[in-house]
Amino acid sequence: MEENRTEVLNSLIAKREKEIEERVLDRQYADSWEQSAQISEDIDNIQEEIDALKQELKFDSTILPFVKDFIKDICDKDGYYVEEPLAYDDRISANTIVDAFARYKKELKTFSSPEEFSSFEDFLNTELCENVAYDREDELAAALTNSLKNKGLLDDFNEYVYTVMGYSCLSEFLYDETDYAGLRVDLDEFIDKTNISLMFGTASERNHDMNCLNLMFGEDTRNREDMLNNAFTYLMYQQGYTFKDLANAISTGNGNKFFKSVREESLGLSDYQGELTVLVNAKGRNLVNLLDVIARAETDKTFDAFVKVPKDAMVGFFNEWSGAGAMFDIVPNKDMYFPVSMVRNIQLDNLKNMKYEYTVKDVYAMSESAWNSEISLADDETNKEMLESDAYSMIKDSTPADLKVYADMLDRAIKEEIEL
């Protein structure tokens, strides 16, 4: 445990005073006038050091507590001086977040192990604060100066910081001697509601160029089993259903709302490629934390976490490459939980991430209410439960034999549907 600063200074003063006593005795027994003069000079030097230590001790009991209290009052509980919006339109744009997110993902790839990861919140704060650091620290210094002046402590403060302590700038003193931690942007205030189009795809879907949804429900029976490991399959299992339930709903045409909406959605997908897509929103730290876990899952293949999508969110099949898609009319019967490792693309406020890419807004011209459901991260208990679920096992551990059985079920069901 670090020694109390006051105790250290008192100990040094006592030690130096003891040295003076010893040197005074030495002077009494000096062999020559020159030796006596040298000892006197040593005593004067030690006394000057004692005076400086006593001055530092005095300032430590007056100036330092005042400055520590000032920092505690003006900064947040973690010691950060917080940047807040100054006007109604003083916000961080989606463009800024998208660009920072791309740089953050590149930085994560330079780390040799997950333990080295920073967080997207820290990364974004660092980038944003670089633009305002000088102005904000000048503002902090001015506020501190005014407080010291009002208490008649400014001259003592300057002597203490720059002469006694030997600091060359105020920020170094604040970092070293107080709980000041630096600048931070209030992300909850600066980041408004942001529309998110979240596209999902399993590793198998990506290997099949995102053709699985179309071919899973199509009339072509070739290699259907290769198409069954996909984001819809995961959702079906997460909602509590199986392939047997799906096959029965298709063959009879008598499924519940979920299966009826899924079948209509699959028939509306007019192109070979397609991906399960949800329309949601997030703001502030919720958005930043969402992007953080998505980036981590991309970089660290041993990491996964789940996002909660409310059951009233718009869900459907979409093709961002050709601008095709169905009606976004899938009707879940309960809230949806998706693993972030299954996130294939994310569009913020309908901004494109690639040159050849359509957004949901481009294609459907939907109103803002389409993104009315707020996404959130699942809690630890839910994460554990979902990692052990049949839905997660389906996309991670399904065997070719199982998939062949499910494919045969669907083959028969689709043939029977055609005959209806």
Describe the structure.
The chain is an alpha+beta fold. The chain folds into 3 domains: 5-74; 80-190, no CATH class; 194-419, no CATH class. It is 55% helix and 11% strand. It has helices at 5-28, 33-74, 94-108, 120-130, 133-150, 154-164, 170-177, 187-190, 203-207, 212-217, 231-238, 243-252, 257-268, 284-299, 360-364, 380-387, 390-397, 400-419; strands at residues 80-83, 182-185, 194-200, 275-282, 306-309, 314-319, 324-325, 336-339, 343-348, 376-377. The chain has a 5-stranded antiparallel sheet with strand order 7-6-4-3-9. A hairpin with a 4-residue loop joins strand 6 and strand 7 (324-325). The radius of gyration is 33 Å and the shape is elongated.
**Strand order across the largest sheet:** 7-6-4-3-9
Give the overall silhouette.
elongated
The chain-level structural class is alpha+beta
Largest sheet: 5 strands, antiparallel
Helical fraction equals: 55-70%
pLDDT below 50 for ≥5 consecutive residues: which ranges?
none
Spatial gap, N to C terminus: 80 Å
Series of secondary-structure elements, N-terminal to C-terminal: HHEHHHHHEHEHHHHHEHEEEEEHEHHH
Q: Report the average pLDDT across residues.
A: 87
Any idea what the radius of gyration is? 33 Å
Q: Specify the number of helices.
A: 18
User: What percentage of amino acids are in beta strands?
Assistant: 5-15%
The beta-strand count equals 10
Total count of domains: 3
Summarize, please:
The protein has 18 helices and 10 strands. With 420 residues, it is an alpha+beta fold. The protein has 3 domains: 5-74; 80-190, no CATH class; 194-419, no CATH class.
